[in-house]
Amino acid sequence: MKEMINLKIDDINVSVEAGTTILEAAKKANVRIPTLCYHPDLCIAGNCRICMVEVEGSLTLTAACAMPVSENMVIHTNSLKVRTARKHNIELLLSEHNSECTKCYKNGNCELQDLAAEYKITNETFIDLVPFHNYTIDHYSPAIIKDDSKCIRCQRCVRTCEELQSVSALGVAYKGEHMKISTFMEKSMFDVVCTNCGQCVNRCPVGALVEKNYIDQVWDAIYDPSKHVVLQTAPAVRIALGEDLGYDPGEIVTGKMVAAIKKLGIDSVLDTDFTADLTIMEEGTELLTRLKKALVDKDSSVALPMMTSCSPGWIKFIEHQFPQLLPNLSTCKSPQQMFGALAKTYYAQKRNIDPADIVSVSVMPCTAKKFEADRPEMRSSGYKDVDYVLTTRELAVMIKQAGIDFESLKEEKYDSIMGQSTGAAVIFGATGGVMEAALRTAYELVTGREVPFDGLNITPVRGMEGVKEASVKIEGTLPEWKFLEGAILNTAIAHGLVNAKKVMELVDSGKANYHFIEIMACPGGCLGGGGQPIPTNMEIRMKRNKAIYQEDAGMPIRKSHENPEIALIYKEFLEKPLGHTSHKLLHTTYIDRTK
Amino acid sequence: MSSQNLKKTDMIFGLCHTTDVEHLLPGGVCKTNEEKFVVLEEVIKKDPQDIIDDIIESGLKGRGGAGFPTGLKWKFASLSPEKEKYVICNADEGEPGTFKDRDILLKVPAKVFAGMTMCGYCINAKKGYLYLRGEYKFMLPELRKVLDSFHEVIKKIGYDFHIDILLGSGAYVCGEETALMESMEGHRGEARNKPPYPTVEGFRNKPTVINNVETFVNVTMIQKFGVAEFKKLGTQDSRGSKVFSVSGDTPKPGVYELELGMKLSDFVDEYGDGDTKAVQVGGASGFCVPRKKFNETIIGFEGIPTGGSMMLFNSSRSMYNVLTNYLEFFAEESCGQCTPCRVGCQQLIRGIRAVKCGQKSPDYLDALLKLTASMKLTAKCGLGQSVANSFSSIVSNFTEEMIY
Amino acid sequence: MKENIEILTKKFGRNREALIPILQAIVEKNSYLSEEAMNEVAKQLDISAAQVYGTASFYSFLDTVPRGKNIIRVCKSIIAEMKGKKEIIKTLENVLKIKVGETTPDNMFTLLETNDIGWSDQEPSMLINDQPYTNLTSEKVIRIINEYRK
Q1: Which of A560, A588, B115, B376 gives B219 a disulfide partner, CB atoms 3.0 to 4.6 angstroms apart?
Q2: Partner-chain residue, chosen from A50, A95, A155, that has the shortest CB–CB distance to B347
Q3: Domain for residue A131, yes or no?
């Protein structure tokens, strides 16, 4: 038991553990202290000076987020001194901020705007400093727009990029009045080590970092009668979209989401889960093939451990930071890109539509997917495989724009073909999910029996720990997989690039004995993606995580290889995993970006 | 409150007393003095606790400007059971109008190193750093020479303490103790949240004592002459002597060692040019005292504490120009991380310009004064908090000059 | 470049604390930090290039834009202003035929202003590289510049 500290906040007696901050203690006492630079996922910065409170006996005010409580502290959160100081600091931030709120993408979802409204900042006391700053807007990247005129220098993005992602594409540069959030040499986000993960976008309290949105382009496509618009939704969208439409975190809204998208006028609403299952087939086979080459053929050129390749933020990360490990990446495209390639080939053929007339849209929990869709190699159908990538947030915007009463919608099912999926595909949205799905299929492929975990739930690979490890002993193999008899398959799972980096350093040093590694760029996996509703934090990620496994458990089919549409596509089109057509449409190559 | 007449002393500098630049440049520096090391040899035979008690008893307060009791600081650091501790000498003398550490380091560097070593002995640290502002890089070769012979001497007396000199790179805010540590650790010089205080978690997150150059010299001299001698100087609240940097409209600019607790009027009588209109006490972050208040102002912790900068302005000077110069300085040298300091400084400077040229009414000065009050209450470190000092003292004492 | 930085990382180490001494050493040699140099330092210290740039740009003496062989920094404190800084700047601008912030075409001099350099008792003052010059007059400035031109 930790030592308890007694204090008084606005005349309320509170008792909290030693080490608790005033901010946390106030929350416990149901006293709300406004914050701006504070984010529960990040270390304390204490730089916005909004959460100031009065601590009796102190000459200055105190930042509640940064001050640990002490015995008999007496705190006032709403004194005249506090209100005046907070108001001053909000006014100062506004004076440095491009306050054209009605023209801002974050209008209505801006923490500075909320504070200005709460403190009723109506008169312009201070001089508008915006004209004196040489602010620039960087919209060169296909994924992220950085608008310095909106930046309030809270450094949430900088801390995110460093602490959660160990990328530090964004840093703080210069000092004093010239201090700004900057990339290396103030280059475009497109030209630096940015992975486009969008975690900064998710944490930016204002409109300084936003996704590049393609809402209008998608509307245009919908209303173009000559176009057939297909839309795929990623696994993690269905368990988070509700948050932007009035639901609490953790609500599964799959059926309503499908209904809403149909109402938007999309011609065919399909499921990325289908290609998630396909990924398992391809990637699982690839892993087994690599193992065979290494163990049976004694081919020392086989790169092991093999690593997953579904997360485009992770792909760009490894291309910048560990190019020497690129051969270890699975050559499988991400489910989004597999889907895109098939939409304009297989789907087009089956539905008898000219692929030139198909507009392929995806809804992703991700901003890096926007970059991924733009990669020059992602045109294996002969067209741009995925034309527009929307984030979960953008889809919510479109649903609102269409005047749809989401709550009252009747649940609907995905269209076919490429709309059927399994529980294994749904869990792609959570950290450990790809691993679990792969094990469910690979184990069965090799042994003919189900993976030996209760109810197919491979719990060791689940959960929010940064790096997880799990080993599976393979016993009772089928004759063709005899070489794996008794083998122990060692796996590792990391989410958040800071954890990915740890695992890669281990692999690079030759100290790791893993065979298969799953990496997701974002904390929690795709459910915590940069394109997910704001706010996202640990509490919310846990709820989304619970929802994902709930969705899995409720699915009639829970193993990728049992998806009937998967069987069908191999029969009709792809022939076999790693076959010629697969190779052409579903696999890709990577670039060493250090050169 | 007690005050006393202006009295010159020479505890800090001893016989070396010159401000002529030609003598300060390499070659003209006072060499190490064997006698000071004798002090050190005696000190390391004492009980560390007794030395700390001596320093507490002496009433010595930090000479950088903030005036924290030196002995207490050492005591806090000494209490930590942590094995790894550090001593830092803050020689990032960036306050406008301050140059006394320059002379101390040029003339009596051995006294500084001796003080640091005593501190190391008291708190059980084996490593000291002197963080020298980049502008003083010219003295580095000479300082290193002195330091080398100093290291020889402590080796001879059988004590283990090593001092390194680190260079700043032109950032005023690094004079703030936690910003300085950030800089030493290879980062931007941004002040940290306090607590934890440096005596608990300082450099490399280890207990650290950081003191001003002059403070360390004072420690050496207290050990040399005894607490009683030290206490004879100054007043009850402001013990000892202080090295002042005198500049501006004065016939004799330079570095002077004076007892604390004098009246500002006495100081002006001695150093003014007969037409002194205002004295800025404590540099740009200090207070501006107008002529009518010279008589009631005591220089010391009972009145205006100061790091030693005394800038004199005669009646030919525009206090508006003085203030804009300070504000430009702060706007540029703020680290920029916290809202009140980064944006507040920009607002103050643009604000007084707007009033001066008539774009804003004189009432706007009141709005700005209120703003400085909030800056003082909410800025993260001393830099932002102290902008209010010069702003409010100049604007309220020279309001007409701000408007017309 | 790689080899030059390697010499420095050997001397100062490869942890974060080595960053500023390394940048200082590069500036001492090359007058400023080139993009290539910062990139190489980032690589060898295993930190991001943005962090190197962010740290460098914080410090006035760690220039990230090209500078001349000799960097002149004239003190712009209030005392310097009172004692005739303007005249000194004018003289320097005339002698060097450049404005404040610029570098001479022969890359010999960059003229800058800087905050208090610690010589308020002897203003006007300036630094040329590390060397302070005080009690400046126009004649003295011309003499000093001519010395550097030799």
Answers
A1: B115
A2: A95
A3: yes
